[in-house]
């Protein structure tokens, strides 16, 4: 279905619904992981290695152990037994495979070598300082050139046609290498664990993007049955992928709490965020494009390396979008891993796609320059009709319209191609564009809905809201299906003891929860209407259930509904007193009449990977960014002044939370392009800018005008609402759109991020 406006478009689905958890967060009422406190809680502080490679020759904790209030110092000499996760298990994922303190070896700077637990945080901090560690030091390898001396294996994927032959025969060939640096996740809330044992069972308060995964992993790591582990993560100050999988501090806190028989709290501080909880790895990507003289792609080679840690094989899948985003008969993607003495990399917003499309889309822009062709025209000319990687039709693809809409918005027709040829407000300006894509799927989810005798609806699901609006999406579905106002809907998430829900990852949470939530509420309503006809003192006793409906929160006879909110335009300021009088019977009265404690039903999401109908399609979201930069050559100042983001992510369930995602991603993209880079000092291997003074992220003053447009075509292959996902994709394509604009303004092509002032000084333009 290709209509942008479904009949329910005027209702709450697709409206600008403020986050229902917003007031809890803005008033400081929401409790995050390390906000939790318990009687007898002890405080843990980790001790980090000050070398990046070698082994611990001697660890002396005796002074620390004698200090006031110290309860325990764990290190490789006395650590309680903890286990590895069974490898290659598709059910659960761990980040760093090596358990903390497994042996005396050091693989990266900042690796935990001990943890001190004391009565107070101050005592633990002081004692952590007193742990003496001597090392046999090896020279660490944190080199940033990945190709030089690379001896590892290269893996080929997605090969089709004969790209090498096609490159030889192509009229125009582009061959360039692009580099993206290490970037570090910097969510507002850092990682942390509060572990509380009760007998053989443990509750972990975490900042986790996946409480179910976390529970499964920690059960294996701690050697206890799954049902003995409960993971709670009700509010999360974002994660950007860094909180998808458990990190060692969770194991350390749980083991210490078990040993002491007391609750233990362990926080990861901002400096540790740069070494111990993942990062986006360094990538080096060689792109070769072949094209006909009139700009039709004939060959793509995408050969990339990314760095990984010494012990874990983490592939940053830079070539994931390459096989299908454009049409091209001859193609190959290869990848390889270069080991470095760094912590284990992990997914970061748009993993693979974000660095990968920086390379591919930069190459497309360079090819357009070589061809003397408008980059807009080049992108449109090479649009793909079907997924040429899998040879499946797209479930819904509107990339071309993203480009044409963006062109309209920025006024692309006025663009003059010569670098440095455009002026605005006494400055040189440049315009650039780039495409984006990200996969979609419907992963499993279970949710329960309870119609309660107090007139409230309770929804329960062991997924979590990392700030994206998941609480609100559940409430929207409940409101859409029952007409019960949002202030009478309670959503319970972020607790692994609830029915299993999806990880908030891969931009797949919303598409996963929608069917489960819908099926659950539909079943609950069906049960309610049945009971209405079976309860002797009910006004609907003896009626046929299918003549009844739940509307405006009231059981009503179909065709005679009064004042139902169902299907009516959503008004965020709606108050019960402002509503007109209603007919029928409030659902809670019926529940009381029937002497029930409530009516509960469970709903499930049938995963797309088991659905033959969905498997017949390639499911992806698409988008385009159009960036404008201002360049003042007199003072070598570059600013990003405008970004237009046009996205095709299926139907948007909540325009407000959805637009927030793309806006935030564009902000992160500006940071990636101009500021962000984690630097390892080459002798010590230390991430030397591991703090907010030296690792720069954009501030308000750095930001351009941002403008987000959703095409809003429902993708009904993914789910009945047509929603795909939006968390990751907004960051893809930002960097290449900006660097294309930088080239257009300055004549300088930047192929290694971030853009540095030294790069721009190569511009030959001396005045605006
Ligand atoms: Mo996303 S990097 O799967 O949080």
Short key terms for the protein model shown above:
768 residues; alpha+beta; 7-stranded mixed sheet; 5-stranded mixed sheet; globular; disordered N terminus; binds dioxothiomolybdenum(VI) ion
If you had to describe this structure to a student in words, what would you say it looks like?
This protein is α+β, with helices and mostly antiparallel strands. Helices cover about 25% and strands about 25% of the residues. The strands form 6 sheets. Strands 3-5-1-12-9-10-11 form a 7-stranded mixed β-sheet, with helices on both faces. A 5-stranded mixed β-sheet has the order 7-15-14-13-8, with helices on both faces. A 5-stranded mixed β-sheet has the order 16-17-25-26-27, with helices on both faces. Strand 21 (about 550) and strand 22 form a beta hairpin. Helix 9 (about 355-370) packs parallel to helix 17 (about 735-745), helix 12 (about 470-480) packs parallel to helix 13 and helix 16 crosses helix 17. The model is unreliable at about 1-10 and about 565-570 (pLDDT under 50). It binds dioxothiomolybdenum(VI) ion.
What order do the helices and strands come in, and which of them pair?
Elements lengths: L21 H5 L15 E7 L5 E7 L1 H4 L4 E6 L29 E2 L5 E7 L2 H9 L2 E6 L16 E7 L2 H7 L2 E9 L11 E7 L2 E6 L4 H12 L6 E4 L15 H13 L3 E4 L2 H4 L9 E9 L5 E12 L13 H4 L4 E10 L13 H19 L3 H7 L17 H12 L11 E3 L2 E13 L5 E7 L5 E4 L9 H13 L6 E4 L16 H26 L13 E4 L2 E4 L27 E2 H7 L5 E7 L6 H4 L4 E13 L4 E12 L6 H20 L30 E6 L23 H13 L10 H4 L8
Helix pairs in contact: 9-17, 12-13, 16-17
The structure holds dioxothiomolybdenum(VI) ion (MOS).
């Amino acid at each position: 279905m290709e209509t942008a406006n479904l009949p329910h478009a005027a209702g709450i689905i697709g409206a600008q619904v403020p986050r229902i958890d917003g007031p809890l967060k803005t008033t400081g009422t929401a409790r995050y992981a390390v906000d939790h406190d318990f009687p007898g809680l002890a405080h843990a502080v980790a001790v980090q290695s000050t070398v990046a490679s070698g082994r611990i020759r001697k660890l002396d904790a005796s002074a620390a152990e004698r200090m006031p209030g110290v309860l325990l110092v764990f290190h490789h000499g006395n650590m309680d037994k903890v286990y590895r996760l069974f490898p290659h298990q598709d059910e659960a994922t761990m980040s760093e495979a090596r358990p903390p303190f497994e042996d005396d070896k050091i693989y990266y700077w900042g690796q935990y070598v001990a943890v001190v637990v004391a009565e107070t945080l101050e005592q633990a901090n002081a004692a952590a300082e007193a742990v003496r560690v001597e090392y046999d030091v090896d020279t660490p390898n944190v080199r940033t050139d990945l190709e030089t001396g690379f001896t590892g294996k290269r893996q080929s994927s997605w090969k089709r046609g004969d790209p090498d032959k096609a490159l030889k025969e192509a009229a125009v060939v582009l061959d360039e290498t692009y580099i993206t640096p290490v970037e570090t996740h910097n969510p507002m809330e850092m990682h942390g664990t509060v572990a509380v044992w009760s007998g053989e069972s443990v509750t972990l308060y975490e900042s986790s993007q996946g409480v179910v995964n976390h529970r499964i992993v920690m059960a294996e790591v701690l050697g206890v049955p799954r049902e003995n582990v409960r993971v709670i993560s009700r509010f999360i100050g974002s994660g950007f992928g860094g909180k998808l999988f458990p990190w060692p501090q969770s194991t350390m806190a749980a083991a210490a709490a078990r040993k002491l028989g007391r609750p233990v709290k362990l926080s990861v501080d901002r400096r540790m965020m740069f070494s111990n909880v993942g990062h986006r790895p360094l990538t080096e990507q060689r792109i070769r494009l072949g094209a006909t003289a009139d700009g039709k792609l004939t060959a793509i080679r995408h050969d990339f390396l990314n760095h990984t840690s010494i012990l874990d094989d983490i592939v940053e899948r830079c070539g994931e979008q390459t096989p299908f985003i454009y049409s091209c008969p001859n193609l190959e993607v290869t990848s390889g891993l270069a080991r470095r003495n760094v912590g284990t990399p992990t997914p970061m917003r748009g993993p693979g796609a974000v660095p990968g499309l920086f390379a591919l889309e930069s190459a497309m822009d360079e090819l357009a320059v070589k061809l003397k062709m408008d980059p807009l025209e080049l992108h449109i000319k090479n649009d793909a009709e079907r997924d040429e990687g899998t040879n499946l039709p797209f479930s819904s693809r509107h990339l071309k319209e993203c480009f044409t809409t963006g062109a309209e918005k920025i006024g692309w027709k006025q663009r003059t191609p010569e670098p440095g040829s455009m002026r605005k407000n006494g400055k040189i300006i440049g315009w650039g564009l780039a495409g984006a894509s990200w996969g979609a799927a419907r992963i499993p989810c279970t949710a329960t809905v309870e119609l309660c005798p107090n007139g409230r609806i309770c929804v329960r699901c062991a997924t979590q809201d990392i700030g994206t609006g998941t609480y609100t999406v559940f409430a929207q579905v409940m409101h859409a299906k029952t007409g019960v106002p949002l202030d009478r809907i309670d959503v319970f998430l972020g607790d692994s003891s609830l029915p299993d829900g999806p990880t908030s990852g891969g931009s797949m949470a919303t598409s996963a929860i929608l069917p489960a939530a819908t099926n659950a509420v539909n079943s609950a309503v069906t049960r309610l209407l049945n009971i209405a006809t079976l309860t002797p003192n009910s006004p609907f006793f003896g009626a046929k259930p299918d003549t009844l409906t739940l509307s405006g929160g009231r059981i009503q006879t179909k065709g005679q509904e009064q004042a139902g909110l169902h299907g009516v335009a959503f008004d965020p300021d709606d108050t019960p007193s402002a509503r007109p009088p209603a007919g029928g019977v409030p659902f809670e009265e019926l529940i009381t009449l029937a002497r029930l404690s409530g009516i509960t039903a469970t709903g499930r999401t049938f995963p797309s990977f088991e659905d033959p109908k969905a498997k017949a399609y390639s499911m992806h979201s698409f988008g385009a960014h159009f960036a404008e930069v201002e360049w003042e050559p007199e003072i070598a100042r570059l600013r990003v002044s405008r970004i237009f983001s046009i996205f095709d992510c299926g139907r948007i369930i909540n325009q407000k939370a959805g637009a927030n995602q793309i806006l935030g991603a564009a902000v992160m993209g500006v940071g990636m392009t101009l500021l962000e880079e984690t630097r390892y000092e080459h002798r010590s291997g230390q991430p030397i800018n591991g703090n907010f003074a030296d690792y720069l992220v954009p501030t308000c003053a750095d930001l351009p005008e941002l403008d987000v447009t959703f095409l809003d075509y429902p993708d009904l292959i993914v789910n009945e609402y047509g929603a795909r996902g939006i968390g990751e994709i907004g960051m893809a394509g930002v960097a290449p759109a900006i660097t294309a604009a930088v080239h257009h303004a300055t004549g300088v092509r930047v192929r290694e991020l971030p853009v540095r002032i030294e790069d721009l000084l190569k511009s030959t333009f001396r005045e605006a």
